[in-house]
Design brief:
By secondary structure, the protein is α/β, with parallel strands linked by helices. It has helices at about 20-25, 40-45, 55-60, 65-70, 110-120, 130-140, 150-155, 155-165, 170-180, 195, 200, 220-235, and strands spanning about 5-10, 30-35, 80-85, 105-110, 145.
Length: about 240
């Protein structure tokens, strides 16, 4: 018997509220989450050296077609499949046709904040590493854009509006479940969690909105930051505004 499933793909760059957003959706009783299902295939194709590379490749799948098949598979019981995707994992030459199976959303963050955070784990950072150029292409597939800084000013109102736009139920009980969650690691977390997820593992909800200006970037990141800001400002112009 065919069962209707809402498939949501939240596309972002790294260090971008994306794991907290995944926690929020996973805390719904009707939702299954999938953490960066293209990561192993991305590393396999690019040969890049990321933290815990061997463990990621071993966890797989490293074949793109297998990864996509897992993305579009029907969950065992959940009526919502929420997938956290990194924009830069969608490499040139990868099939895009499967994106039509999803309600696609673009999640942005000021790239100066992204770069400052990302560089703590990987010192050499390019525009492609943080997914900014890829976000331009993905914007054509996405129904709307969410800015992380805006979201954190009022997570409840933003999450309710996101659900409304995606035709997902969001009564008071479901909304409450999306705003707080137990601390700790999840079985659904990617094997790379020890390298990246320390902050979200300690969290029990969304953090406060930023109260400081984005940091000044070191000289070796300044040019990347300037290029990224130009793209970010263009994409942000079409962001979701909750009134």
């Amino acid at each position: 018997m065919h069962r209707d499933v809402t498939r949501i793909a939240m596309w972002s760059g790294p260090r971008n509220l994306s794991t907290a957003m995944m926690r929020s959706w996973e805390n719904r009783p009707d939702t299954e989450v999938i953490d960066e299902p293209l990561y192993a295939a991305y590393l396999h194709q690019t040969g890049l050296d990321h933290p815990m590379r061997d463990e990621i490749l071993a966890a797989g799948p490293v074949d793109v077609d297998d990864a996509i098949e897992a993305c579009i598979a029907t969950p065992a019981t959940a009526s919502v499949s929420y997938q956290k995707h990194m924009a830069h994992h969608l490499l040139p030459g990868m099939d895009r046709s499967w994106l039509g199976e999803f309600r696609n959303v673009l999640l942005l963050r000021d790239p100066r904040r992204v770069l400052a955070s990302y560089a703590k784990v990987r010192a050499d950072v390019t525009l492609d590493d943080i997914g900014v150029p890829q976000q331009v292409e993905l914007a054509e597939h996405c129904e709307f854009v969410v800015d992380s800084d805006d979201f954190l000013t009022d997570p409840a109102r933003h999450q309710r509006e996101i659900c409304r736009r995606l035709d997902v139920a969001c009564d008071d009980s479901l909304l409450a479940s999306m705003l707080s969650w137990p601390a700790g690691r999840r079985s659904s977390d990617g094997v790379w969690a020890p390298a990246w997820y320390s902050a979200v593992e300690a969290s029990i909800g969304f953090g406060p909105e930023p109260t400081t200006e984005p940091p000044d970037l070191p000289e070796h990141l300044a040019e990347v930051g300037e290029q990224a800001m130009q793209i970010y400002e263009r994409l942000r112009a079409d962001r979701l505004i909750v009134t």
